[in-house]
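Please, structure for the following, as tokens.
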Amino acid sequence: MKVAIVIPSALNSYMFDFVLSYSQALQYLQTHIEDLPFEITHLEEIRPKKQFPIDANRNYAAARILEEGFDTSIWLDADQTFPINTLFRLLNNRQYPIISGIYHVKAKPFYPVMFYERPDSDFTFFKPIIEYPNDEFFYADMIGMGCVKIDRCVFEDIAKSYKDDEKIEFFRYGLNPVTIEYIKEDDDDRRKKDAAIHAKYAIRDVSEDVFFCRLIREKTDYKIVIDPKIQSGHITSWLIDKDLSDGFYNQTMAILEERNPESHKYIKENICRAEPIKKQD
């Protein structure tokens, strides 16, 4: 089994916390490598050139995986920390071709970077999965690429969907179709002006992982599986992790329950929840 560990980065160096966390996870994998259900015949890091834009970084890595015959790959972002058993745990499960850990956005309300699609919208928006089982796998429609295992077959099936004369593209930093129509009447003038600027100048502000996740849904039969036991930290001026996210959410909901019980009840009844994967899946 050939395994690639992909570490794309737009930075000129890697953060210390990432290097330490990754080194410990790699050492743990090497220590427990004989416990995997397969033999790793080749393990290689792919670190795309830093001067590339991030979607080019990822496309380069995906191309290497296909061209050089890697069987599976683990994608790690360089602004994260990981549980020590992350690499081992992602590789140890061979049932699902796509398995992601969980990390959180760097700004309030610190929700997890995993989403369900909203097909009721003119443009497909995503809503973050806030509540989920802590000990069982579950599905998501969209994830970030910060901590995820992707088997070769996923890239192969996407590549097959392109015509022979088309260039194969897995990741693309995209255009947000935000226009004045998507802005509420009571939004401030700055937001309305920004929406008009985005619409007029085609500013690309939809991350490349959205493009990739849509390809998975549209071009393959695979599903994105979340492993909630892999809780990664997101490095900023402080560490964004599950504890911070849960604390902010619980505090906010407690205040809302006291001040506006009806809104609290509505949110609790309609919040986005994930269900465990049924055993037969």
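The domain at 2-172+209-270 is CATH 3.90.550.40 (Spore Coat Polysaccharide Biosynthesis Protein SpsA; Chain A). The chain has one domain: 2-172+209-270.
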